[in-house]
Automatic annotation (TrEMBL):
<protein>
    <recommendedName>
        <fullName>Enoyl reductase (ER) domain-containing protein</fullName>
    </recommendedName>
</protein>
<feature type="domain" description="Enoyl reductase (ER)">
    <location>
        <begin position="8"/>
        <end position="366"/>
    </location>
</feature>
<keyword id="KW-0862">Zinc</keyword>
<comment type="similarity">
    <text>Belongs to the zinc-containing alcohol dehydrogenase family.</text>
</comment>
<dbReference type="InterPro" id="IPR011032">
    <property type="entry name" value="GroES-like_sf"/>
</dbReference>
<dbReference type="GO" id="GO:0000721">
    <property type="term" value="F:(R,R)-butanediol dehydrogenase activity"/>
</dbReference>
<dbReference type="GO" id="GO:0034079">
    <property type="term" value="P:butanediol biosynthetic process"/>
</dbReference>
<dbReference type="GO" id="GO:0005737">
    <property type="term" value="C:cytoplasm"/>
</dbReference>
<dbReference type="InterPro" id="IPR002328">
    <property type="entry name" value="ADH_Zn_CS"/>
</dbReference>
<keyword id="KW-0560">Oxidoreductase</keyword>
<dbReference type="Pfam" id="PF08240">
    <property type="entry name" value="ADH_N"/>
</dbReference>
<keyword id="KW-0479">Metal-binding</keyword>
<dbReference type="InterPro" id="IPR013154">
    <property type="entry name" value="ADH-like_N"/>
</dbReference>
<dbReference type="InterPro" id="IPR013149">
    <property type="entry name" value="ADH-like_C"/>
</dbReference>
<dbReference type="Pfam" id="PF00107">
    <property type="entry name" value="ADH_zinc_N"/>
</dbReference>
<dbReference type="InterPro" id="IPR020843">
    <property type="entry name" value="ER"/>
</dbReference>
<dbReference type="GO" id="GO:0008270">
    <property type="term" value="F:zinc ion binding"/>
</dbReference>
């Protein structure tokens, strides 16, 4: 079968590899769609520890690079391994894969508690091995699979994984109806956060900061109250670091924002989020950073008693998220798909397009 194989930064190859067969406790899934993620883009540009390396076996999968890429995917069950519950799982079911994996050792407290994302060895299918969504088929343990309800398309199914990051981020933030929010970064995760926030409070003040005009337009279309360009020049003709905080304070009558989500992974965005928060506001870091930020104003954090929350993927929220999508509480996700491509084009029309054309590209789906 065809698969996009990750060898390392700047090196993704379309290759023919053996088609997997389901072992005991596994389903064989014919993959329909796989979304290219922001972390895939980071890995293509620079070495990221969680992505498979040729130098060291992954703790959980035992694999080295090359591995099959892709962790945002949906598909259809085409085979059942020995011992699979045939009352629950059937050939022909449309499914989505929850790709977070861990050691599952009872000696590790977080694995024992079921919070796989906090295991020291936590990783992802499609990043560390065990197959991936950029292939024609995958064989996967049933514990990582969720049934897609009728009415939820396979295209939307391929967006459940990044939407889960957004859903988990909002849940961890404690955002509730009557509060306001700032989203730094209008890429896929930022736009998904916007949609989750809007599903909680249709009338909340939600501000999105994003330099790409096309993504700002999408943010407006999908419910942002106010959309800001952080690179808009000030009176001196240069972008001002106070552009976003000034607009936030004007919009909140000088109070500041309740919850700020940093989904861009850049120093300027982090600073804008912090300085926009009201006293006892909450900063949620969602982004994956290629390098740690140069600094953070801890005196500001202390003076305003700011809460800082980190997000590592998600845990335990897929069933309620899928129900929210199926019920229409979170809707119009298809409108964020800006391109569909075959697997042969994954580098040039997928990865490179997202890196070089952020103005018009948001979520690109690949059909293996």
């Amino acid at each position: 079968m065809k698969a996009a194989r990750f060898y390392g930064p700047g090196n993704v190859r379309i290759e023919d590899i053996p088609e997997p067969q389901s072992r005991a406790g596994q389903l064989k899934v014919k993959i329909a769609w796989n979304g290219i993620s922001g972390s895939d883009l980071h890995a293509y540009l620079a070495k990221i520890p969680k992505y498979a390396s040729a130098d060291k076996e992954d703790e959980v999968t035992g694999e080295k690079a090359p591995v099959t890429l892709g962790h945002e995917f949906s598909g259809t069950v085409v085979g059942l391994g020995e011992g699979v519950d045939q009352d629950r799982w059937k050939v022909g079911q449309n499914v989505v894969i929850e790709p977070v994996i861990s050691c599952l050792k009872n000696t590790r407290v977080f694995c024992k508690a079921g919070t796989r994302n906090l295991c020291p060895g936590a990783n992802f299918i499609g990043i560390a091995g065990w197959g991936g969504g950029l292939a024609e088929y995958i064989a996967v343990d049933t514990r990582y699979v969720h049934i897609l309800p009728e009415g939820v398309s396979l295209e939307v199914g391929a967006m459940i994984e990044p939407l889960a990051v957004a859903y988990y981020s909002v849940k961890r933030s404690g955002f509730k109806k009557g509060q306001n929010a700032l989203v730094i970064g209008g890429g896929p995760i930022g736009l998904f956060i916007l949609k989750v926030l809007r599903s909680i409070d249709p009338s909340a003040l939600i501000i999105v900061s994003e330099p790409a005009s096309g993504r700002r337009s999408l943010a407006s279309k999908h419910g942002a109250t106010l959309v800001l360009d952080p690179l808009e020049p000030g009176a001196d003709g240069k972008p001002s670091p106070t552009t976003v905080p000034s607009a936030v304070y004007q919009a909140t009558n000088g109070v500041g924002i309740d919850v700020a989500f940093e989904a861009a992974g850049i120093q300027a965005g982090l600073d804008a989020a912090l300085f926009s928060l009201r006293p006892r506001g909450t900063l949620v870091n969602v982004a994956v950073w290629e390098k740690d930020p140069v600094g953070i104003s801890m005196n500001l954090v202390t003076a305003r008693e700011i809460n800082i929350i980190g997000i590592l993927g998600y845990t335990g929220i897929h069933p309620e998220l899928i129900e929210a999508v199926a019920s229409g509480k979170i809707k119009d996700l298809e409108e964020l798909i800006t391109r569909k491509i075959p697997i042969e084009d994954v580098v040039e029309k997928g990865i490179m397009a997202l890196l070089n054309d952020k103005d018009s590209q948001v979520k690109i789906l690949v059909h293996p």
